[in-house]
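Deliverable D5.2: sample structural annotation.
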Amino acid sequence: MHTKMHSFSHQGWNTEENRDSRTLINRVRHGLDLFGRADELYDKIEDNKDVPSYITAQYEQKGRFKYLLDRDGEDAGFDDVSAAVQHDIYFKYGSSFYS
């Protein structure tokens, strides 16, 4: 998502806040608009069964596509979240953040 945000054609939404990994993860986890628009509301569908069988099978067999099926965890279902968040923290606050 971070990379897609950089190449997004509506550059007005391509802001540092909207590209911040922690902000993106929080918005995905809580069903908020990716660009922080308060008037865009989303409903969470618990135990959604209206998913292609391929997605469900891959999730059950290999743990793939978690971000499509389970966004409740700290990582919002994304595999690369830890590295992305650590990258953002390091470049925003420096190595002293970890001390």
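Annotation notes: The chain has one domain: 2-6+15-98. The chain has a mean pLDDT of 78.
The annotation will be released with the project's public dataset once the embargo ends.
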